[in-house]
């Protein structure tokens, strides 16, 4: 089950052009393990079920940080290479989110998931 996002999705129109050529190790991990079943001890599963939502929210927040910077670069006509780099980072952060979500989706959702997400939303910038 996919967790409801902490933050709205970043528009990926620019980043999607990099997806086909991505050499991200996280993308490679996703391709290899996305359909795998992960096994954890009860204690590990309990800890991960509380930690992974925070990490997913962090990845969503970081996508916005780098997306906003890429847009700033575009508006101010600053170096194009820097803008491309920021867009690649946005895509890589999306892969991180997907990988964390891949693992998180196999764990029981904590009863206080909304409180966990709210805390991360207050802590993380959008």
Q: Can you describe this structure?
A:
With 126 residues, this protein is mainly α. The chain has a domain at 41-123. Helix content is 66%, strand content 0%. It has helices at 16-19, 25-33, 42-75, 80-104, 113-123. The chain starts with 15 loop residues before the first helix and ends with a helix.
- Report helical residue fraction: 55-70%
> Beta fraction of the residues?
under 5%
Strand-and-helix sequence, N→C? HHHHH
Count of DSSP-assigned helices: 5
Rg calculated over all Cα atoms = 16 Å
Poorly predicted parts: none
The overall pLDDT average reads 88
Strand tally, please? 0
* Coarse morphology: flat
List keywords for this structure.
126 residues; mainly alpha; 66% helix; 0% strand; flat
